[in-house]
Amino acid sequence: MAVIFDEPDHVGHEIGHDTPAYYTKLHELDGYIGQILQAVKEAGIWDDTVIIITADHGGIENGHGGKTMMEMETPFIIAGKGIQKGQVITNSMMQFDIASTIADLLGLQQPQVWIGRSVIR
Fold this sequence. Notes:
Elements: H1 7-14, H2 20-42, E1 50-54, H3 69-72, E2 76-80, H4 96-105
Antiparallel strand pairs: 1-2
Helix pairs in contact: 1-2
């Protein structure tokens, strides 16, 4: 299942990234993520679940697409079944590595044309 929160993007473009309003929105979304995690636990599937939290881009002022670290660097948090606790990914990672990681978690061979690599191996 994928849950996508589009609001940080809107706040970033309308008000600005790295602003109090942006962090207020992230705090709100953190509460929603907590509700999702609680629902997974209550459903009895916590031990068989992998959670990935990430973003598609960073931002600077009201935009993105440049080559600053504020624009290119995004969070990538992964936890759950088969994921080593406390591990830090030190190698560079690209957005297309997320699909490769998900395929790896599901035991699927990625198509030959994919250039991504799993970050859990």
